[in-house]
Amino acid sequence: MTDVFGTSHKDVHEQVVFCADEQSGLRAIIAIHNTQLGPALGGTRFYPYESEAAALADVLNLAKGMAYKNALAGLDHGGGKAVIIGDPATQKSEPLLRAYGRFIQSLGGRYITACDVGTYSPDMDIVARESRFVTGRTIEHGGAGDSSILTSFGVFQGMRASAERVYGTPSLHGRRVGVEGVGKVGHRLVDLLREDGAEVVVCDVSQEAIDRVRQRHPDVEVVADAAAMAVSDIDVFAPCALGGALTDAVVETLRAKIVCGAANNQLAHPGVEKQLADRGILYAPDYVVNSGGVIQVADEIEGFNMDRARSRAARIYDTTLKIFGIAAEEGVPPAAAADRLAERRMSEVGRIRGIWLGA
Ligand SMILES: NC(=O)c1ccc[n+]([C@@H]2O[C@H](COP(=O)([O-])OP(=O)(O)OC[C@H]3O[C@@H](n4cnc5c(N)ncnc54)[C@H](O)[C@@H]3O)[C@@H](O)[C@H]2O)c1
Fold it and tell me: Does the entry feature the keyword Oxidoreductase, yes or no (predicted)?
């Protein structure tokens, strides 16, 4: 059973809302982990969960993750997320998305949504017809468009910071980087790496995705899968496919000195982080380096400006270096250092909201 009220203060969620509209078939859960830094911001996942319990467990976990990601991205946003239960290919419709929009609106701005797995910018345009609290809309509708642009840029900044830490220079020129998954984020990362003079090795289960990269960069090497990539002669491993890429087996054989990629929840289990540290592999925490996307959509709230959003995402370089510094000083793995830094910001900056502003 999922414990909405949590077993430790870190797991307590401020608000969890179940929403249903029978005619359109909407069944959604909106979870707000905390609003210490401002309105909760996080995407809407449209997914055919096996059960209500599975959907609830996912949304609680994702909302908490967003609180930490937003805090370290320097945003004035708390963490939230929503899930719509169903198959987006067959169940997504205008009435369903608009019904969902009305529930978001009913929260009065405590939760601001965006795209996630199964939802796209044109969907957000529809949701926005019923709610003011929507980001990730299309550019034609004043939105930030495809968030993978700044996600890949942010991952690249995190990788440069990791290179600075390991090699003493942020340049990836001449380094061999393995990119697992060359979808929306991965293929843009390959562009940035090639521009910087890195050698690139890729793998993907989709031949179409591979072909697209090979068309742009014919000299990119292709390997069968992550296992083959791990044992190949790479300096950096960038998981950009699904979560759980860093399994015991991959870490045991990994030749890279750095792991830095876009995928969420890269560690297959919490023990993997120690294994990475024991093998002398520097791990750039996923939620720190992949925050460019949320930085991009958050900018929409001010009236989207790509230059401003890009310069905010560029700070991922400094944040990543700072986390490595804290990890070394305090003798903890980088992911633990990142959590500490996020919690510090939530508590120190969140606290000032208690200052009475007068009438
Ligand atoms: N798009 C964003 O702005 C964003 C932001 C933050 C985090 N992320 C995370 O980054 C990752 C990539 O996101 P995306 O938007 O590029 O998704 P995507 O679906 O466009 O790309 C994923 C790619 O991985 C490939 N893939 C799937 N399973 C694979 C496997 N076992 N081995 C190799 N390749 C495999 C797919 O074929 C696809 O090409 C995801 O984990 C996502 O949650 C994305």
Answer: yes
In angstroms, the CA 98 to CA 104 distance is 10
Q: Which of 12, 8, 66 is nearest to 42 (CA)?
A: 66
Ligand 1: residues within 6 Å at CB?
Answer: 147-148, 151, 180-186, 203-206, 209, 225-226, 240-243, 262-264, 290, 293
Nearest-angstrom CA–CA distance, 261 and 320: 13
d(CA 229, CA 98) in angstroms, rounded, equals 44
Rounded distance from Cα 241 to ligand 1 centre (Å) = 4
Among the listed residues 107, 149, 350, the one whose alpha carbon sits nearest the alpha carbon of residue 262: 149
Residue among 317, 325, 337, 354 nearest 73 (CA): 317
Residue 184 labeled ligand binder: yes
pLDDT tens profile 305-356: 999 999 999 999 999 999 999 999 999 999 999 999 999 999 999 999 889 9
> What is the pTM assigned to this prediction?
0.94
| All domains of the chain in start order, with CATH | 9-66+78-141 (3.40.50.10860), 148-292 (3.40.50.720)
> How far away, in angstroms, is 266 Cα from ligand 1 center?
12
